[in-house]
Amino acid sequence: MFAKLSKFFFLIALICGVSECLNAQTDAGKRPTLDGREDKNDEVRTVKGMLAKQRAIQDKKDHQELLKRGEQAAALSEQLENAFEQKNELSLQDRQKLDSLEKIVTKIRRELGGDDDGEEAVYEGDKKPSTAREAFNILKTTTVKLFDELKKTTRFSISVIAIQNSNSVLRLVKFLRLRS
Q1: Deepest of 34, 79, 80, 126, by most Cβ within 10 A of its Cβ?
Q2: 105 CB burial (10 A radius; 0-12, 13-18, 19+)
Q3: Residue 27 predicted with pLDDT over 80
Q4: CB-based contacts of 122, cutoff 8 Å, min separation 6
Q5: Which DSSP string do the residues of 56-94 spell out, in sequence order?
């Protein structure tokens, strides 16, 4: 009888040991804390990692869109200068392009974290334009400088020069709207 009882206890101990091993394998990712609750840090770390990765992808996409806007602004300013050179005035379509240029450069400035600082614009050679022809020439060179400065930036940097150039472009647009 004693032999049967010891075999019975041995069998129960063996079953408990095997079930404990199986339970440990299924809960390997969950660590109990001192008060018996499971540690959620692993899950939080993976969620934070996913969010950080998504944020990095979105930042990269936003930077690419910023560069695309800079390229559009440079192209528009060149088109406007060429149109003014040919006709010596702005057509309705050219005025719409001027409005589009203003909207694009305003978005660029906002994305760079800048605003209208109220200071005088820095024009090429520190000289304000006196004619519309001169203003279109300065507009084109300033917009190209803006685009070149945007190409130098990364999604982690802010360029003060790009903000200043965007302010100059916006002031030139206002000047041209009044003069032409």
Answers
A1: 80
A2: buried
A3: no
A4: 164, 168
A5: HHHHHHHHHHHHHHHHHHHHHHHHHHHHHHHHSS--HHH
**Rounded-to-integer distance, Cα 172 and Cα 180, Å:** 12
Fill in the amino acid letter for 59: D
Contacts of 83 (CB under 8 A, 6+ apart): 90, 91, 94, 97
Distance of alpha carbon 170 from alpha carbon 104, whole angstroms: 10
DSSP helix/strand/coil, 158: coil
Confidence of residue 89 (pLDDT cuts 50, 70, 90): confident
* Cβ neighbours, 10 Å, residue 164: 20
CA atoms within 13 A on the CB side of 42: 9
Closest CA to 108 of 177, 171, 165: 165
Token pair of 47 as six digits: 């969620």
